[in-house]
Amino acid sequence: MAQLKQSEEEIIKLGKRLIEELKLEYTVNTLARWMVHYLAELIQNVEKCKSEQEKKKLQKECCDIILKVWSQKENLPMRQPLEDLKPIIELLKVFKKDDLSFLPNWLEYRHLPSNNEWATFVDLVKNNTEKLFLTVISTNLNKDLLSKTSDWFIENKDFLSDEEKDFLQHFEMITWSNDSSGVYDFNNYESKIESLSVDEKYKLIFDEMEELIEQQKQELKKLKNTILIR
Known about the structure:
Layout: H1 8-23, H2 30-48, H3 52-71, H4 86-93, H5 117-140, H6 143-148, H7 150-155, H8 162-181, H9 189-192, H10 198-229
Helix pairs in contact: 1-2, 1-3, 2-3, 5-8, 5-10
């Protein structure tokens, strides 16, 4: 197992987080009950120890066990760190090829004025595609689920895999782009349009997406007519 560079205090904090997650399965899973008692006893022994020398020894043993448990987290009866965001991760991975970024390349560019008809068409397609992408992400992003994983982001981020850290970095970028783009936030409709049903909210989103695609079609027709008239 690769040696982690986190402090013993951070590792014990991770152990306490594992206990909290395992407690969610406490009443229905024997392994979860055993792990909760086992980890809790290890941590309590460290915290109650009066001898500094003995405490350091117990702390090292406790941290080693916590890291071993963490390395096998996929096999534990607990919610995985980013499990609730799995639908969003799957959407983002559509754009991830080999070692490329989760973000499609066109999100890195912005509008540049041009008198070139082809450039105008490509610019509109790029901008509308970006809006479509962000709309799909917004529709699937449940902020209640996001709040459930916030502890992993804030307190235990250093223990996540490189891929999970990469996702979080790009997720923050997408969230920022979403907030500044004017894209509908499906999860905030309750506060904005309380009278709408779920189906009506979805209809608004699909209407917007259809409008974006229609704009692309109209710009393509305009480009076609301009080129063929010459």
